[in-house]
Amino acid sequence: MELTSAFILHQRPYRETSSLVDALTRDHGRVSLVARGLRQTKKRSSPIQIFQPLWLSWYGHGDLVTLSQIEKDEPGYRLLGNASLCGLYMNELLVKLLPVHEAEPDIFDAYRQALSSLQQNNNEQITLRLFEKALLSHLGYGLALTVDVESGEGIEDDGIYIYHPDSGPHRVFGQRLQNTVSGRSLRHLEQETGFDELSLKEIKHMMRSVINYYLGGRPLHSRQLFAGLNQFNTKTN
Amino acid sequence: MAKLGPSIDELISALRCLPGVGPKSAQRMTFHLLERNRDGGQRLVQALSHALDNVKHCKRCRILSETELCSRCDDHRRQQDVLCIVEMPSDVLAIEQATQYQGQYFVLSGHLSPLDGIGPDALGIPKLIDWLDKNIIEEVILATNPTVEGEATAHFIGELARARNIKVSRLAHGIPLGGELEFIDSSTLSHAFSGRESL
Ligand SMILES: [Zn+2]
């Protein structure tokens, strides 16, 4: 096969000297590979890192294939500070939500764009929300952001909605409910612009419930990292 | 693999818990011990059993130790207000051999890795926080590996220390001493370039 653009999402030791590699490729989607002897060469050159654009090829069929060639493409994305935690979060999201061997170049491009945005220290919250939106959409779980699915009416800025992951926004009136999202925030997410602190907060909660729905109860460990940072820091402050 | 008898098979399979030991090497070791070096085997049994009974983790820095506090943590001549955070026990030995560092250590036994389910608790972070809160620490030196996960771990701990007004430093990553730019791999060079210092 020809070399394909790829990123390593995760790798772990396998047998004595090999690694089990989870990769996101542009032309073949997510692929699980056995990399023989990769760990042995580790000491000589610097090992392959996540967030490093690569060229990959492999042989074999089925769910687990064997890596045949690996080359670095351009310099890797350097995510420093909080951006590194955001990057780990995106990788976990991809490994847990993306089926293997389903080519989805748009997801690859969205991932690459998000890495670049994180490297440039753009607003992390916006970067993550847009990545989640693109990921859901290209997985076929696209968000409905323009109409109230109950009444069929357009979303109004000052309307209050509850977003049901399996259908979309339902307008609610009167009583203060939890986990609501304003029409204004839905518009920001739809237009991918205009975000502010309030809309980012509402959208974050909404996205979390949508993603939880598709995860079907599996936890995201990287989320606990962000939570841990807050928890450990507020305990004594 | 051919059945050689339950005791031999069990020994071969037990030896495979060692890193880098596959079926072939395990079989070779087994034959060696049983055919040629039964005394060595006896010694191995005693040393292993003794070590398993007596070696625990230092309750302060988490390195392997036969006493509650390891010799470094128990040494009052060492600087008490500088704390160096490393991923592995072998990193402590490497730093001790290579530098004049005379402060304290904390061994994480790994790095943050959400996809392996390794979070702050598995790295002993609550214990580290307790240390930071109950002692006067002037500086935390983050000596985790220059990998993405090591970087994320350093950031995580750095934030905790900063929130407590503790000075945080990170090991510099650069070109090996005596190296020539031309022959250094691109990631190391780009790392060294972006981490350049003003003179
Ligand atoms: Zn100790």
TrEMBL record, chain A:
Name the record gives this protein: DNA repair protein RecO
Chain segments annotated as coiled-coil in the UniProt record: none
Ranges of residues in domain DNA replication/recombination mediator RecO N-terminal: 3-71
Lineage top rank: taxon: Bacteria
Stated family: Belongs to the RecO family.
Pfam families: RecO_C (PF02565), RecO_N (PF11967)
InterPro entries linked to this entry: ARFGAP/RecO (IPR037278), DNA_rep/recomb_RecO_N (IPR022572), NA-bd_OB-fold (IPR012340), RecO (IPR003717), RecO_C (IPR042242)
GO cellular component: bacterial nucleoid
SUPFAM superfamilies membership: ArfGap/RecO-like zinc finger, Nucleic acid-binding proteins
GO biological-process terms attached to the record: DNA recombination; double-strand break repair
Top-level taxonomy: Bacteria, Pseudomonadati, Pseudomonadota, Gammaproteobacteria, Thiotrichales
Transmembrane segments: none
Function: Involved in DNA repair and RecF pathway recombination.
Origin species: Methylophaga sulfidovorans
PANTHER family recorded: DNA REPAIR PROTEIN RECO (PTHR33991)
Keyword terms of this UniProt record: DNA damage, DNA recombination, DNA repair
Manganese keyword on record: no
Keyword DNA damage: yes
Gene name, Swiss-Prot/TrEMBL: recO
Automatic annotation (TrEMBL), chain B:
SMART domains: TOPRIM (SM00493)
Keyword Kinase in annotation: no
GO terms classed as biological process: DNA recombination; DNA repair
Zn-finger segments (C4-type): 58-73
Keywords: DNA damage, DNA recombination, DNA repair, Metal-binding, Zinc, Zinc-finger
Pfam families assigned: RecR_C (PF21175), RecR_HhH (PF21176), RecR_ZnF (PF02132), Toprim_4 (PF13662)
Gene3D superfamilies: 3.40.1360.10, 6.10.250.240, RecR Domain 1
Domain Toprim: 81-176
GO molecular function: DNA binding; zinc ion binding
Family of this protein: Belongs to the RecR family.
Function comment: May play a role in DNA repair. It seems to be involved in an RecBC-independent recombinational process of DNA repair. It may act with RecF and RecO.
PANTHER family cross-referenced by the UniProt entry: RECOMBINATION PROTEIN RECR (PTHR30446:SF0)
Protein name as annotated: Recombination protein RecR
Organism: Methylophaga sulfidovorans
Gene it is expressed from: recR
